[in-house]
Every structure is written in C-alpha cells, then in structure tokens.
Design a protein that fits this description.
Length: 142
C-alpha cells in the first residue's frame, strides 16, 4: 500500500514512482536514470505504455550506484559487475536457505522413520532353532 507517495514497509518491490520522482528521491537527474536503465544497472518496471516505474528497491540501488561512482570512484562497468555479483550472492544465499530447509526436513523424516521402525519391533523372545554340529578337519597325509 502507498502512503503519502511512498510504499509502506514490505512493499519495496512495487514499482510506483515515475522517473522524475525517482530521480528526485535518488538525488539524480532523470537523464542519468535513463542512462543507467540503458546500461542495465537499474531496470525499473514498465507501464503498458512503456513508461518507467521505479520501486523503493530501485531507488536504493540508484543511491548505491551513485555512492560507488562518486565516493569509491568505480566506473559504470565495475558497478554493473558489482551489482551482478551481489545479485548472485543473494541468489546463492536463498538457495542455501532452501537446501538447509530441505535437509532439515529430510533429517526429521529419517528420524521419524527410524522411530517408527524401532516401535514396530516385537519385544518378546523369539524361539531360535539351535542345532549343533561338530566338524573335524583332518588333513590328508602324503
């Protein structure tokens, strides 16, 4: 939900800001945002008519691009690579989280199956047919 033109918390992915508002929020010129979009640094949502719509996440990314460029002196190609690597790290962290959940579920299922198997054991004595045989080995004499 949008309140006062800014999305509420938890709604940072919703593209709501036109380019002029996004530029103002990011402290940049609108043409800079167009350039960043063309270069693939920040990819805003699009309206059916093709207009750009920026989310709060996009605004934060624009600010990070500006910081990396102005404060750290990173060129745009370097910034693009940094963003790609950060996205890759985020995706890998999400995958690790998924796999950890799957592994935990597998451990729980294995423990439950083991407990069920142990619970099915009969606890009474089972008769065992015991036969005794004596085998004597005698080597052949030469």
């Amino acid at each position: 939900m949008v309140f006062g033109g800014i999305p509420q918390e938890g709604d940072e992915e919703t593209p709501v800001f036109v380019i002029s508002v996004a530029a103002q929020l990011a402290g940049m010129h609108a043409q800079t945002l167009r350039t960043y979009d063309r270069q693939g640094l920040v990819s805003p949502g699009r309206t059916p008519g093709g207009g750009r719509r920026y989310s709060m996440r996009d605004i934060a990314l624009l600010r990070e691009v500006q910081r990396l460029s102005q404060e750290d002196g990173v060129n745009l190609a370097g910034i693009k690579r940094i963003i790609e690597l950060e996205n890759q790290v985020d995706a890998l962290r999400a995958r690790i989280s998924e796999l950890t959940e799957e592994l935990t579920a597998a451990y729980v299922a294995a423990e439950q199956a083991t407990a069920a198997a142990h619970a099915s054991y009969r606890r009474d004595l089972v008769p065992l047919n015991q036969q005794t045989a004596l085998v004597v080995w005698r080597p052949k004499r030469r």
